[in-house]
Amino acid sequence: MDTSDVISIDEINKPYLVWFEENWVHDDVLHHHKKGQLVYVESGFQYITIEEKKYLLPQNHAVWIPADAVHKTNSHSEKIKLMIMFADIDSTDSFYHEVNVFSVPPVLKEMIKYAEKWSKNTAENKDETLFLGALFNELPHFVAHSLKLHISLPKDKRLTKAMDYLHDYYSKDIKIEDLSDIALLSLRTLERIFKKETGLTLSKYQQMLRIIKSLELLSSDHLTISETAYEVGYKSVQAYTRSFQSVMKFRPTDFVKNIK
C-alpha cells in the first residue's frame, strides 16, 4: 500500500509525517514525493526500486530516499512491518541527496519505535517536530558507514532475455557465453553492454544476486545459514561466508544475530 493512496503526502503542511503499518502491502507503482523518506523494516524484507536501481531492505535495515526520487516497492515477504517517515530537509549535506541503505543501530531503532506514537498524525505537533528534527539531524552520523545493497536494472533492451535468465538461474554456474547465446549478441558486445549498464562484471553481478537473495532467505527465518548457502548456489558454507563477508563486510552469523 502506497501511503499516498490514503493521504496525499505532498499536501501535508507539516515538516514530518510518520506512517507505521503492521502488514504492509506493496503497490508496485512508480511515484515520488517532495519530502525525503526514511523507510525502516522492522520485520520481513522489502525490495525497492529507486531511480532504476533495485535495493533490498532486510529486517532491521532502512533506506533514505531523497526528495523527488522516483521509486516503487517491488515485492516483499508474506508479512512485513514497515515504519516510514517523511521529512522536509533543508540541508546541503550530501547524505540527504543520495540513496542510503543501512543496518539500523540500536539507538536509532529505539528512536524510530518511539516515533510510532505519532503514526498517521496529520496535525502538526510540537513534540513530534522537536523529536523528529533531532532524529533527522543526526541521521547522517548514525549511518556514516552505510552499505548500498543494490543491483542496477539495465535500460538496454538487448539485455532483457539474458538478464531474465540470470535472475531466474543465478544459483547455477552461468558463463558469459551462455548469456551471449541467449541475447543473440557477440561475446565482446555483451561484455561491453553488461558492464556499461550494471557497472559490474557478470561474476560480480551474480555474486550480488546470490548475497541479496541469501539476505532475503535469512530474514525469513526458514533456512539455516548452511541451507541458505546451498540454496543460492554455493558449494560450501565456507565459500558462502567468504563471499558474504566480501560484500557485506561482516559474517552471515552477525547478520542472523542482528535480526533476532
TrEMBL record:
One MF term from GO for this chain?
DNA-binding transcription factor activity
Q: Does the record's keyword annotation contain Transcription?
A: yes
- Annotated Gene3D superfamilies: Homeodomain-like, Jelly Rolls
Task: Check the record and name the SUPFAM superfamilies matching this protein.
Answer: Homeodomain-like, RmlC-like cupins
Which segments constitute the HTH araC/xylS-type domain? 160-258
PROSITE patterns (alphabetical) = HTH_ARAC_FAMILY_2
Asked if Iron-sulfur is a keyword of the record, the answer is no
Q: What keywords is this UniProt entry annotated with?
A: DNA-binding, Transcription, Transcription regulation
PANTHER family reported in the protein's UniProt record: HTH-TYPE TRANSCRIPTIONAL REGULATOR NIMR
- Give the protein's recorded name: AraC family transcriptional regulator
Which species does this protein come from? Chryseobacterium soli
